[in-house]
Amino acid sequence: MAAMDLWERNKYLPAGILLLATVVFLKLVWGLAALRSRRRLPPAVKAFPLVGGLIRFMKGPIMMVREEYAKLGSVFTLNLLNRRITFFIGPEVSSHFFKAPESDLSQQEVYQFNVPTFGRGVVFDVDYCVRQEQFRFFTEALRVNKLRSYVDQMILEAEVSECMLLNAYLQVDHHQLVDCCFISIPLVLLDILNSNTINYILQDYFSKWGESGTVDLKYELEHLIILTASRCLLGREVRDKLFDDVSALFHDLDNGMRPISVIFPYLPIPAHRRRDRARLRIAEIFASIIKSRKCSGSSEDDMLQCFIDSKYKNGRSTTESEITGLLIAALFAGQHTSSITSTWTGAYLLKYNEYLSAAIDEQKKLMKKHGEVLDHDILSEMEVLYRCIKEALRLHPPLIILLRQSHSDFTVKTRDGAEYEIPKGHIVATSPAFANRLPYIYKDPDSYDPGRFAPGREEDKAAGPFSYISFGGGRHGCLGEPFAYLQIKAIWSHLLRNFEFELVSPFPEIDWNAMVVGVKGQVMVRYKRRKLLVE
Ligand code: HEM
């Protein structure tokens, strides 16, 4: 009887357990399905098949990014011919872009188009281990002690006058010529050029401007930065003796880097042929200079010397062709980027009187403290000027899109929690030009407001790393950032101390068509020479 009762009471138990298990199973499947639906491929940009993506991209990549970000969010894929480019916009998603190891996201494939310009055996033509060693050479060449001496040379470049050099040359006793295999340099000139003091300086580079006048600031700053970069990076031989030749060759090298070169770097077009001829000639020139330095045993304070003295971990010295390639890479990395940033900084200072006055006041304070001297440490004290440059660079990063090649599948999570799977084989991109203006990071993001970086506000830090990416960041962050700031500060500090300016052309527009995006057209300024007075 009791057994019957027990059976009666429990006869539904197996069915209940089955039901429960089914519910749990369905919930699990449902949960997994929900997870899968949130973990999906990024949305794709709508465009006509085959060439649609290319047309959208060529019409203006940033315009495309702006429109698609509004429609699709921070991660989306553009089908460009047979390639898939997935964009990551904003620090939350781009952190993987910047931090991923080379085995997951690499630069070599996407930046291959630089190889004919930089040359064989360097940077993007070598595997990652060698490239890391070569970037170590860059890091060493840009250490603070090196920067100190570069600054002295930059200031000298901005302030020493051509007529002073000529006078020195004319006064020289011809027995005092330093002869080596390649060049002869008057000793008087060497004294002046190696001097750490600028007491010798009689007039400045800008002396050719006269007492007052009108100039194209963009042209002038481009020219000045070629001079400073030539002296600090390429070395004295180039700056003093071969400047015109080497500048013309670099011009051809530069013009050989066209938008079409990104896809077809070896296309037999005249610009590429001129590039290749120029590259060969530059290699010959540097081979002679390097031989000359080695055989005379002379050593200089420049990047060329650092590369000559560099050694790989296995003890091997750099070859002439590697040294030349690394120098070209340095010049390409720093030349346009710095001159464009100097021009935007000037244009904004001349547009907004409040920031100009703040920058001038800072110069006055420093002059009161240190006198007229300018050196690495005094430039480092220029916080106001630093923020003015940084803000110009936030609004106008010259490298508008950064790329990587993905080698493994990975997942990214957006700010609002959506997860996307990025398959191996995609090109991954991020855009400093767009991400630097995200309104949830920067207040009133399109306006020029250097104070946003001041203590207390620090908008770029508040949102975490990779909120300000004009210099990239993470694993491949710019190695030349301190050099670039010092160079631009040295120039603007000199200009603020010696001239008054007025912008006479309309505020410049952005030249989106350039490979390194800069200022469109001329930036005409009226200047008047005046010495900044300290009360
Ligand atoms: C305003 C001036 C400059 C800007 C805006 C700038 C910007 C950048 C950016 C965005 C990157 C990262 C590229 C990427 O992630 O794909 C980069 C990398 C680099 N930059 Fe600069 N740069 C400037 C000046 C310089 C200068 C003056 C030099 C050297 C003299 C230099 C040397 C380098 C090097 C060697 C790298 C590669 C680092 C690596 O891949 O590990 N840059 N730069």
Automatic annotation (TrEMBL):
GO molecular function: heme binding; iron ion binding; methyltransferase activity; monooxygenase activity; oxidoreductase activity, acting on paired donors, with incorporation or reduction of molecular oxygen
Membrane spanning residue stretches: 12-33
Record keywords: Heme, Iron, Membrane, Metal-binding, Methyltransferase, Monooxygenase, Oxidoreductase, Transferase, Transmembrane, Transmembrane helix
Class of enzymatic activity (EC top level): oxidoreductase
Biological processes per GO annotation: methylation
Residues binding heme: C478
PROSITE patterns linked to this entry: CYTOCHROME_P450 (PS00086)
Keyword DNA repair listed: no
Record-listed E.C. numbers: 1.14.13.70
Listed cofactors: heme
UniProt record similarity statement: Belongs to the cytochrome P450 family.
Protein name in UniProt: Obtusifoliol 14-alpha demethylase
